[in-house]
Prior knowledge:
This protein is an all-beta fold.
Amino acid sequence: QVQLVESGGGSVQAGGTLRLSCAASGYTYSSYCMAWFRQAPGKEREGVAAIDRNGSTTYADSVKGRFTISMDNAKNTLSLQMNSLEPDDTAMYYCAYDFGRCGLNRDTWLSTRRYNTWGQGTQVTVSS
């Protein structure tokens, strides 16, 4: 059974940085698709960034150039480096996992329907 535990959230001022981590256990090392999502109060959960087992990545337009997703298989840890944070980045951040490669259609990589395992989330608050 795959388990995901997020950490690294906190409160920062606009322009600041945070690095989120997601400790994964029980996942299939050879084939996976993993992602970060976020959900602000009153809004739907939205995809932020995703990464395939081969290292290919995709990002939401709103975070391109500011966020970087990475996976350290030796440490079983998914990370999200967040730079130049903005108040609109304030949300609960979740990591997600699905067995198998992300696939050729990148439009699906940031869809909530694609993932079957979720962490409990870590809160990120950015003040202006």
